[in-house]
């Protein structure tokens, strides 16, 4: 079986690459998917619908277009990794984790210890909490290995 792993969350560090490379080194039978990680492209996803005015309606349209990808890939994945970084509040990552919890999709949170408290409910519904991409790879190896 090839496992599909959805990589959700912050886009300001190389955590996705670390997990992908780590899984590759272990030759895990995995396929990775993710949201659009180009911030400008994501913000402009709804611009093709009608001329845009900045603000709420532009964000609203773009979030709906992005939601097609996110919802579909989350529903199809076997497990999601949800990364919370230290630079910005990732409301989209929290939404993805909540969606996973609501549909019974297993997910692993990935974040530093200093934000355990604000993420206590998100972590409580997760199947695991990791602090490093290497720990995520170890969990995937354990779960997937024959």
Structure, explained:
By secondary structure, this protein is of the alpha/beta class. It has a domain at 3-37 and 79-144: Rossmann fold (3-Layer(aba) Sandwich). It contains six helices and five strands; from the N terminus they run βαβααβαβαβα. The chain has helices at 15-25, 39-43, 56-76, 91-103, 120-125, 133-144, and strands at residues 3-9, 30-33, 79-83, 107-110, 128-130. A five-stranded parallel sheet has the order 2-1-3-4-5, with helices on both faces. Helix 4 (91-103) links the parallel strand 3 and strand 4. Helix 1 (15-25) packs parallel to helix 6 (133-144). The longest helix is centred in the middle third of the chain and has 21 residues, at 56-76. The protein is globular and about 50 Å long. The protein starts with a strand and ends with a helix.
How is the topology of this model organized?
Blueprint (H helix, E strand, L loop, with lengths): L2 E7 L5 H11 L4 E4 L5 H5 L12 H21 L2 E5 L7 H13 L3 E4 L9 H6 L2 E3 L2 H12 L2
Parallel strand pairs: 1-2, 1-3, 3-4, 4-5
Helix pairs in contact: 1-6
């Amino acid at each position: 079986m090839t496992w599909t792993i959805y990589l959700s969350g912050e886009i300001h560090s190389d955590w996705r690459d670390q997990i992908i490379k780590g899984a590759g080194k272990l030759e895990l039978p995995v396929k990775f998917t993710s949201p659009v990680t180009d911030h400008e492209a994501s913000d402009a996803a709804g611009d093709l619908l009608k001329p845009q005015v900045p603000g709420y309606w532009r964000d609203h349209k773009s979030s709906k277009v992005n939601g097609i990808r996110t919802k579909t890939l989350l529903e199809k994945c076997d497990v999601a990794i949800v990364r919370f970084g230290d630079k910005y509040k990732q409301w989209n990552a929290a939404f993805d984790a909540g969606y996973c919890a609501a549909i019974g999709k297993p997910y692993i949170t990935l974040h530093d210890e200093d934000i355990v408290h604000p993420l206590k409910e998100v972590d409580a519904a997760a199947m695991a909490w990791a602090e490093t991409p290497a720990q995520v790879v170890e969990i995937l190896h354990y779960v997937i290995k024959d």
